[in-house]
Amino acid sequence: MPEMLVFGYVASHSPGASTARERMAEVSIELGKLASCEVVILEAKSYDDLAGAMHRREIDVAWLPPIPYLALERREEVVALVSNHRDGRAPYHSVLIVNAKSLAYTPADVQGKRAAWVDPRSASGYVLPRLELAEDGIDLRSFQAEKFFGSHDAVAQAVIEGRADFGATYAGLDRAGAVVRGPWMDLANGEESIRVLAAFGAIPGDCIAARTDVAPALREKLTGALVRMSHEKSNRLLLRDVFGIDEFRRFNAGSYGGLRDATTTAAKRGLLDGEEKRVDLFVA
To answer: How far is it, in rounded angstroms, from Cα 156 to Cα 97?
Structure first.
């Protein structure tokens, strides 16, 4: 019997979640074939749930955003296998977005406004923008309201509909600094309804990581299988649909150095709420 592995990811909150689930199931089948094992899917409701399931050994392999990955890596519980690349690069950026009709034109204009965040563990949708806003002299206690919407597209939708005055999310920038992709671009009238207020530093891409107690030989099979899938014409569209990538590349640990420093700084300066510190995401 082939070895069985559980692959975890955070389920989408969007209307197309059922289709995404079906596509993820296709990924698990193809990955299992190439890695000579059986891969089953576990959906988590949030980044916290995903990291917790990994910690409890309910998941063997996971699609991890940067912040949960760093938390688990710090505890020596995971080993990254591959990183996500799109447009030939792994990094993306954190951006502040506003409704196109908004009178806000600089980060200073969001002080005292209603904020839409993705998740307390989202690098682009919470952690980095709070650090950058504080650096710009914004009083983070001044926001009229703050809400976590659970996904990047939900943040964009809240800004479009006027349920938040600004939001934090991710974007891909070209070499000239122009936005070439963002979650609002996939929403109805999103490109016309959203304006990017500010873009912050580059963030390393998501990764696929395995628990450290998964056998090294099996981790290597999984790594090779993921890289191979991303170069097969028959699977490239599938991986783009599910992960939003052009290819997987073997993980480069050095790409996470800047974010490690930024999250540690944010926690030590008290720029994140008490819950993050309590669960020891940033500070040992």
So the answer is: 8
